[in-house]
Design brief:
The protein has 17 helices and ten strands. By secondary structure, the chain is an alpha+beta fold. β8 and β9 form a beta hairpin. The radius of gyration is 22 Å and the shape is globular. About 40% of the residues are buried.
Amino acid sequence: MSLDRPEWLDDTFLSTCLQNGAAYKSFVVNKVDITSVLPPGSNFGGCLWRVHVEYQENGIGNTQSLSLVVKKPTEIESMKEAYGQFTMVEPTFYKSFMPQAYKISPNINFAPKTYVSSVPDVIILEDLKACGYLMADRCRMLDFDHCRLYVVATASFHAVSVAIHKIQPNLVESLGVEKTFSNDPGPAALIKRYNLVGMRVLADKMELLDEYKRYSNILRNSASGVWDLAVEALKPSASLNTLHQGDPWTPNMMFKYDSSGKVIDVKLLDFQQLRYSSPVNDLVFFLWTSAIHDVRESKLEDLYQIYCETLNEKLEEFGCSERLTYEQLLENVKILSPFALLMCAVFYPVLTSQRLLNPNALMSEDEIVVRNEFEIYYNKEFCEYLLLRILKQIKAAGIFDYVTGKIQAQC
């Protein structure tokens, strides 16, 4: 269904976009059709429109058409309160970071192409759907082939950020300022609150299970301690730091398939939550929120190896002397155990649910409202099936023992 056209998305705006920096060209817009890009509940970080434009170059000749995706900051009040100060991060990423990446290597292709936008906080992207890319089902998660493509693409992104940091360190580090995991007063307090509530809800469910009961009290009573460990773990690393996506879950990427249905390519989307620290952070977030169970149970080492090899190959290709050893990667994975635990407690129940997320409830200042929202996701079906399996994976990865050991050592 066609949507109303925002006032600023006028013919002049679209003509500037079509020029894309080529001032000697002019375009006449004949027809515009606007539809929503995503179904409700798939993205809360911005407003996205698919804009189909019919136009003529110089007002003559055959009518041509182009499909674009136009993105502007979110209108959801709770999200604006939490992330409003970072609205220019993604526009700056596309306007300043990506041109540097293309200079370093013309083969960079992990992100969609962009067009010139005359509105500072609005981004115009190529329509990946028109190029044959599809968004995977976030509830079904991603199999090994999808995960492999992701780790290769993200390794390229991470590596080129190291090269750009040598040229423009302030650009990279300013884009990667921590936006979510912080103990600073202000908007981050909203994010901390719902993470602590989610951790306590998980602990309550674990208390009902004999195998995990021994962990429940310490995690419930020390939810703030888990948060503090995660905050510390996400700070820049001693081994290697890169710019990375920050929240690489399934809706923040699109995949392309061949005629047989085999997945052949991926594009990363949404660079609002960029972070500058260990690149392993992205791997941990992705694998504990977006991979299918079989991947976490039997393919983690394979993906770690692929990532490490690709990252180091790309670092060499881009003229960087830095390297990440497999042992350093594994050490970072271990240090990030508190972060992984919070991903499982807070994000996993939400991301595996068909229910539409209510961000205003999750970010409410009333903890009872936040808890009630989590309880909806921790329903009987989730607790009897998905929760049992993810808890088994968390335990097998040594996450419970690492986190509780760290907390007890601080007492």
